[in-house]
Automatic annotation (TrEMBL):
Keyword Signal attached: yes
Name the record gives this protein: TraB/GumN family protein
Species of origin: Pontibacter populi
PANTHER family given in the database record: CYTOPLASMIC PROTEIN, CYTOPLASMIC PROTEIN-RELATED
UniProt cross-references to InterPro entries, sorted A to Z: TraB/PrgY/GumN_fam, YbaP-like
Signal peptide: 1-24
Keyword entries, A-Z: Signal
Keyword Signal tagged: yes
Amino acid sequence: MRKLYYRPFLVLLLALCITVPSLGQAPAAQPKALLWEISGQGLSKPSYLFGTIHAICPENFNMPEVVKNKLANTERLSLEVDMDAPNFMVELQQASILPNGSSLRSFFSDADYSLLNNHFKQTLKIDLAQLDRMKPFMLHSMLLSQLTQCQAVSYEQSLMEIAQKQGKEVIGLETVSEQLSAIDEMPASVQTTMLTNMVSNMDEARQSYRDMVQLYLQQDLAGLDALAREEYNDEEYREYEQAFLVNRNKRWIPVLEREARIQPTFFAVGAGHLTGKDGLLELLRKKGYTVLPVMR
């Protein structure tokens, strides 16, 4: 089967980490649900875990009333990172820049660099020489509107606005630098291949994105697992999954536990973090918590 290297890019760009590390196992059967209640283990009140998609066209965006209600029943909102933190943009910019002495140009062959440079010039009116200190993966975010073909919105931004209106504190499970350090662990060759193949196969990438959105709207986490499973069979991607998905989930669990004990909290993270044997749902159950779907 031909590997569609742009598909991992879609997973990353949308922060919808829908891959699973144990590719030989079928995804576990579970209800179609994006919102889950966390209780037990001495929690005085339940907290909630909601799977998001970070980029979706306005016409497809829908914030279910049950999500709003459960957010209202908690004391705080926790995103992957605190997007409302004063130093958010500064951290993001610092983590996006290559170390001194490194060059974006050095990551690409002459042919691939020419391909990308022509694409950026034609579609964004930008010469890649202007971005020579940028990390390769950061170029992907500049192509988001070409992928979605709209001015995308995010569930995180909407949840944050609702929480602020309710006077709730917004916190993060990790810092921006911690999140982006996972990307740095991915081999540069994989990052560059994802980028060049997406540019070369934009129509197919857009169709994969539309497929992912439809599965998300159907709250079909198992379907999203299966969609990613089709192409994830390369050792380099296994290494990436370990860093970007599994390791982060395991780092988040003690943070999630601590915050849920302090106050009932509404946690919102990329939907793929919920599933699989190393997903947040299963990791919480192994800790003894009761984790139940909240149906529409």
